[in-house]
């Protein structure tokens, strides 16, 4: 079990580091577009569309990475006052009631969403008509990464709850 949890952590860590590079391209394309607009009074036909898709990729794919590093919103005011087991119980309940159902719904709907986009060959409404189905597929991939990290975090919380051990976290 420990090997599987480490593999999930490693997958999300690797994904986060790779996808973070998209930020560089978002900045470069934005600077290029703004520069073209300001210096030549002519915005590009493609930079805004490409930047939107890169931002979507960046935002969605980093959900599992953020969960791995506990960067999602928590109510720490109450949680920090609890023992390790109390925190684990709160995590287990929170994941069962809120997080895991959300991820299941996200995954189910994103698969349908992406399937329809692929079936119709959906494109953007811009001049270039950039294909949208790859980025809609990213929603499915992001949901899987988020679900895997949620299950890993949940499993660790259950272990703490049952055994009283401190949290094992690999980052």
From TrEMBL:
Q: Which Pfam families does the UniProt entry name for this protein?
A: DctQ
Entry membrane topology = Multi-pass membrane protein
Q: Which UniProt keywords apply?
A: Cell inner membrane, Cell membrane, Membrane, Transmembrane, Transmembrane helix, Transport
Q: Which domain of life is it from?
A: Bacteria
The yes or no answer to whether the keyword Aminoacyl-tRNA synthetase is present is no
Q: Where is it found, in Gene Ontology cellular component terms?
A: plasma membrane
In terms of InterPro entries, this protein maps to:
DctQ (IPR055348), TRAP_DctQ (IPR007387)
Report if keyword NAD is assigned. no
Per the UniProt record, which residue ranges are transmembrane? Answer: 14-34, 54-72, 92-113, 125-152
**Boundaries of each Tripartite ATP-independent periplasmic transporters DctQ component domain copy?**
26-158
Q: Where in the cell is it found?
A: Cell inner membrane
Under Gene Ontology molecular function, one entry of this record is: transmembrane transporter activity
What assembly does the database describe for this protein? Answer: The complex comprises the extracytoplasmic solute receptor protein and the two transmembrane proteins.
Give a short account of what the protein does.
Answer: Part of the tripartite ATP-independent periplasmic (TRAP) transport system.
Which family does the record claim for this protein? Belongs to the TRAP transporter small permease family.
The protein's name = TRAP transporter small permease protein
Q: Which organism is it from?
A: Sediminicurvatus halobius
């Amino acid at each position: 079990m420990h090997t599987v949890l480490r593999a999930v952590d490693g997958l999300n860590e690797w994904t986060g580091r790779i996808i973070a590079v998209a930020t560089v391209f978002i900045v470069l394309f934005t600077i290029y577009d703004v520069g073209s607009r300001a210096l030549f009074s002519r915005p590009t036909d493609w930079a805004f569309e490409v930047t939107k898709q890169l931002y979507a990729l960046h935002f969605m794919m980093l959900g599992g990475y953020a969960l791995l590093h506990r960067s999602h919103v928590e109510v720490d005011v109450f949680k920090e006052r609890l023992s390790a087991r109390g925190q684990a119980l709160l995590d287990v309940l929170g994941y069962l009631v809120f997080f895991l159902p959300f991820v299941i719904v996200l995954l189910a709907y994103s698969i349908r969403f992406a399937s329809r986009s692929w079936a119709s060959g959906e494109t953007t409404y811009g001049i270039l008509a950039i294909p949208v189905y790859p980025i809609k597929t990213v929603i499915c991939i992001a949901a899987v990464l988020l679900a895997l990290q949620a299950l890993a975090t949940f499993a660790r919380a259950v272990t703490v709850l049952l055994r009283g051990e401190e949290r094992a976290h690999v980052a």
